[in-house]
Amino acid sequence: MGFVRPTPFVDLARRTVEIDESAGPRPMRQALLSGLGACGLCLFSFSPAHAYLDAGTGSILLQAIIGAVAAGMAVLLGLRGRISAIFSRLKNKDAKKANSSNEAGET
Amino acid sequence: MAMVAARFDPASYRDRRGRVLDLDGRILRVIAADAAEDVAWLEREGLLADLVASRRLIPTWRTEAPADVSDGFEATVTLEHERLPFISYPYEWPFSALKAAALFHLDLHQDLLSRGASLLDASAYNVQFRGPRPIMIDVLSLRPYREGEYWLGHQQFLDQFLNPLLLRALLGVPPHGLYRGALEGVPTALLARLLPLRHKLRPGVFFNVVLPARLQRLAAKERVDAARAMRHRRLPKRSYLAMLAGLRRTIAKLEARPDSVSSWRDYPTTCSYEVAEVESKRRFVAEYAERMRPRLMLDLGCNTGTYAAVALAAGAAEVIGVENDPDAADQAFRQAEKERLDFLPLVIDAVDPSPAQGWRHLERRSFAARARFDGMIALAFAHHLAIGRNIPFDQLVAWLVGLAPHGVIEFVPKSDPQVQRLLRLRDDIFSDYSQENFAALLGRFAGIVRQETISASGRVLYWYERPAPPSSRAGTS
User: Could B16 and A63 be called an inter-chain contact, meaning their C-beta atoms sit closer than 8 Å?
Assistant: First the structure.
């Protein structure tokens, strides 16, 4: 469950995790490298828009915090989605099992 | 080359992608290649046409590039803007005008974001007024929105709109003098120091003043890195919109805290005139405006705008008001909004008018340099300068007549109770202040078209008209 790994760039980390999920458990170093990769990906995918105007450090930091809170909430919502997906999958599996055993019983 | 450079608007230097120039009275905006694509996009999306049609953007159209633009500037696109009759500055706006401009800016920004565009700055100087209606004049502030981008104009919006409004609304301090002394606006850090704790805890204030000021301090101590934060963190569009909506809610609730020293706001109802006097004054002003039909009239000492409204109804096209008292000007602005008058009252002290300032003293022009009026009224005004402020009488009359080629000036005699009030606590050193002297001085600079005594105390209205300049000199002036 790599997606709960605490990381400063939560939303992007989620993206990396999606790629990594099939790889299974990894040693710590690999995880670190992957984290750096996430940073690289982040730099590559998001070059901040600047303008002729100096935006002001206070305002930028405030917006970074807002962005972090929004991303954090997105992760929590995503997490809830995943957990409920797991439960529904388990439920489905049980249902299937029950169905197939029923079918087996019928034949 | 130097001649061409001189035509560029000296205030148009911040954004290097374009420059504004005044070409024989036409306002052109030359745009470099790196912004031409944005302009083309705005045109393709129909945004420019729509904003102009909804009167939110100054009428703008493409035009031929001027032949001799140089000074190192390579124009790819040239736009022409409608010329505004008068440019005002935010440090001259009454509270309600600054508030209207702020709400206009936020509404425009929200609308643009919903259509895939954004504003890259939030300069109050990019908002101008037609009458009491705000309008955006800078096309290059508009550009396509990029997913995740920050509101880069947030700090500028706070300094130039929110903070001066809060000064007045929370502390009862009219911001005009402070704003005039700090062209980029009232700094957030300064306001944070001035506000008492109970105001700091209001959500809108905490979020937009206290927090940015605190974060700015942390960044100055290098405890946090804003550039790094910006590189690594996006601002979701939802959050961007929520910031704008939050500010809008905060500003919409702000009211000008009454200024206890204002003596002018109640003037129309508490003043000593007889009803008949007011009636004759209205008739005189109406006749003047109807016959002269000024396109841009100045109302000196406009108070709450009673006579500006009379002039507009009678035939004046637009009126700019000058009023020293922020409360009276504010009430005049709200009245103009309510009655949809083409009237913009400004908070300006005639004895200490807005100077030329900013970069090279050329960026924000003085009131005198912008004062191109073709008509004026100065009612119950001159005695405040002559006696209240010690302005020499001959200089005063020369100045008044110099403001417009024709106009109406009221003379209030020393015996009038209003003048007696001004003299209550001082010596009468104004031996030259008399009706005879006024008429003689006026006659020296202009012709007297009509005069009428309108009160028992001896108040007189003078309609003057300056002689037309000799035709041989017309071309050189």
Answer: no
**Closest alpha carbon within chain A to B15:** A52
Show residues of chain B in contact with A57, CB under 8 Å. 215-216, 219-220, 226
DSSP code string of B375-432: EEEE-S-HHIIIIIS---HHHHHHHHHHTSSEEEEEE--TTSHHHHHHHTTS----TT
pLDDT in tens, B63-120: 988 877 766 777 889 999 999 999 999 999 999 999 999 999 999 999 999 999 999 9
**Nearest chain B CA: its distance from A35 CA (Å):** 13
Residue type, B143: R
Q: How far is B215 from chain A (nearest CA, A)?
A: 5
The ipTM of this complex is 0.82
Query: What pLDDT, on the 0 to 100 scale, is given for residue B269?
Result: 52
**Given CB atoms, is B235 within the 8 Å cutoff of chain A?**
yes
Using alpha carbons, select from B302, B459, B306, B278 the residue that is nearest to residue B383.
B459
Q: What is the model's pTM? A: 0.85
Q: Which residues of B touch A42 (CB under 8 A)?
A: 231-232
- Per residue in B22-36, pLDDT (tens digit) is 888 899 999 988 899
Average pLDDT over residues B183-196: 95
Query: Which residues in chain A have Cβ-Cβ distances shorter than 8 Å to B148?
Result: 46
Q: Which amino acid is at B180?
A: R
Taking the CA atoms of B173, B175, B181 and B183 in sequence, report the sign of the dihedral they define. positive
Q: Taken in order B238, B239, B245, B248, is the CA torsion positive or negative?
A: negative
